[in-house]
Design a protein that fits this description.
The chain is of the alpha+beta class. The protein is built from ten helices and five strands, in the order H-H-H-H-E-E-H-H-H-H-E-E-E-H-H. The longest helix has 41 residues.
């Protein structure tokens, strides 16, 4: 296949993929509309990626792959749910710690703060232990999630699937000429580049991912900054932030723990959802149509 033919082929695959996604998304809306009270209660109780991850794994993929391969998809489902739970915990702790820091400022009681500058009267930081613990947990779970994803997607194309995302990319590149799904998934996986320097290797000399730094060498450098603003009022940062001055950390657009947690969850689960739709588009549509009919017939 020539380079020109390859570009045309990939463009056509993207168009087909968009059409298939729209059909699935339309079916998703119809299905969700008809959910009963128990299903809706389950969704509120715990994050249930109905017909995006959980439903696809439980009701579709389980019927089309061997038990040996299914365990990888099941691991993806579990870890995706763990990601959103940990993300919620980080958001919850961030609010609690901010309230505490503001209370200390209001009471002018700085005994729990660490001084950052002897020359500046109000220059402190506060280390939110439990939020830092959850943040560290999220980084590890995010990497584990990507490893399970690599195994799951890789098992669709080869008997011995790759162990990590970089290996999955290499393997998919060897399949693009024979299987259009490989090209489409490879395109989806590009979104994981947004996690370089956070969960994944930043691919820059003398730089490490935050996950790599804290898993092997040091505690996570998460803190609330306490300072005087332009009006000489003592205040604190909007939320806990990763220390940005570490020489081995790449420049990030936003150092907020909440922002980074949301980013990890958004890109990893998004990559899973889209890849599963590419692998099993007809199977998902058929099962969704059948289940929607079952739901609507029960209501009559």
């Amino acid at each position: 296949m020539s380079e020109k033919q390859g570009d045309f082929y990939l463009k056509e695959m993207k168009n087909l993929s968009r059409k298939s996604k729209k059909e699935i998304n339309d079916l998703l809306k119809e299905y969700t509309k008809n959910l009963d009270k128990v299903d809706k209660a389950q969704d509120k109780l715990e994050p249930y990626y109905r017909w995006e991850i959980d439903g696809v794994v439980d009701d579709v993929i389980k019927n089309y792959v061997s038990a040996g391969k299914f365990k990888y998809f099941e691991a993806c489902k579990f870890k995706a749910k763990a990601l959103i739970f940990i993300k919620w915990k980080i958001e919850e702790w961030d609010k609690k710690y901010k309230r505490f820091v503001l209370l200390c400022i209001r009471e002018k009681n700085f005994k729990y703060f660490e001084k950052t500058s002897a020359e500046t009267p109000y220059s402190y930081y506060y280390f939110p232990f439990f939020e830092a613990m959850e943040f560290e947990h999220l980084l590890f779970q995010g990497k584990a999630c990507l490893d399970s994803f690599s195994k799951a997607i890789g098992s669709f194309f080869e008997e011995t699937p790759p162990n990590k995302l970089s290996e999955l990319k290499k393997m998919l590149k060897t399949k693009v000429d024979q299987d259009p799904k490989a090209a489409a998934i490879l395109d989806v996986i590009k979104s994981a580049n947004r996690l370089n320097g956070i969960v994944l290797d930043p691919k820059k000399e003398k730089k490490k991912s935050i996950r790599d730094l804290i898993s092997h060498r040091q505690k996570v450098d998460l803190k609330f900054a306490i300072f005087e603003d332009s009006n000489n009022k003592v205040t604190c940062s909007p939320g806990a932030q990763i220390g940005m001055r570490h020489p081995e950390i790449v420049h990030l657009y936003n150092y907020s723990a909440i922002h980074i947690a949301s980013k990890i969850w958004f890109y990893i689960t998004g990559m899973m959802k889209e890849s599963f739709k590419i692998l099993f588009p007809d199977e998902i549509k058929t099962t969704l149509e059948r289940k929607t009919k079952e739901l609507t017939s029960k209501k009559r």
